[in-house]
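R.M. (postdoc): so does anyone remember the format we settled on? I'll just put the structure tokens first.
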């Protein structure tokens, strides 16, 4: 149930096309646990070693919990007008076949630490007339910075959406997108947007009797002091 390798490299990429690989003194491929275990390992991306770990573990096939590849980026901070960077370390939880969770910690120079969580869950899979799978899905993306070092306020971001079939004729669609303050996108996400839209929509369709209708409620959060009319002008 296990394969043992010494002075070896391992990758899930196609043969002779290894975008990434693990280069280690020893590797165990445990088929029962569906995990690979490496000792004194270097993770190599496009031929460049990106980090070293004494012990490293990964999923051999399918999804599995574990650390994902860290990310690093540089940018110009819009408040301090100085060069800045952020370093993000994510961890993925494979909770069940129909749900997962991503947690991440990001260090942002001049801002501090940002904590992030992304949750996804599927409901009631069905097959449409074209033979394709259609899922009801809940998605929540939340981020939080406690006492931003530059602005000296708490910063947060929330993007939640729900697509849910209540029955064969009734569908609920909801999106909630809000941030703590009007400068969040410019200072934290590093791009400009003038507004965020949220909505709640309940739809009813009876194709057999040619009957349909919906109830819609919408809300817009204006960012950076610019209204929709201001943006159009």
């Amino acid at each position: 149930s296990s394969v043992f390798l010494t002075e070896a490299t391992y990758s899930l990429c196609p043969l002779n096309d290894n975008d990434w690989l693990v280069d280690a003194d020893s590797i165990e491929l445990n088929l029962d646990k569906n995990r690979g275990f490496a000792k004194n390992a270097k993770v190599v991306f496009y031929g460049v070693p990106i980090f070293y770990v004494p012990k490293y573990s990964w999923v051999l096939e399918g999804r599995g919990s574990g650390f994902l590849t860290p990310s690093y980026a540089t940018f110009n901070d819009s408040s301090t007008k100085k060069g800045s960077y952020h370093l993000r370390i994510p961890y993925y939880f494979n909770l069940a076949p129909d749900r997962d969770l991503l947690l991440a910690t990001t260090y942002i120079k001049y801002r501090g630490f940002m904590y992030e969580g992304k949750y996804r869950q599927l409901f009631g899979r069905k097959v449409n007339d074209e033979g394709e799978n259609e899922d009801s899905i809940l998605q929540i993306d939340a981020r939080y910075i406690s006492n931003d070092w530059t602005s000296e306020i708490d910063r947060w971001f929330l993007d939640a959406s729900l697509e849910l079939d209540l029955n064969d004729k009734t569908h609920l669609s909801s999106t909630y997108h809000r941030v703590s303050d009007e400068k969040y996108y410019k200072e934290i996400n590093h791009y400009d947007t003038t507004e965020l839209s949220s909505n709640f929509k309940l739809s009813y369709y009876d194709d057999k009797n040619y009957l349909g209708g919906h109830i819609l409620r919408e809300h817009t959060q204006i960012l950076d002091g610019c209204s929709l009319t201001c943006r159009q002008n």
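R.M.: ...and that's the designed sequence above, right after the tokens. Also worth knowing: The radius of gyration is 23 Å. The chain has two helices and 14 strands.
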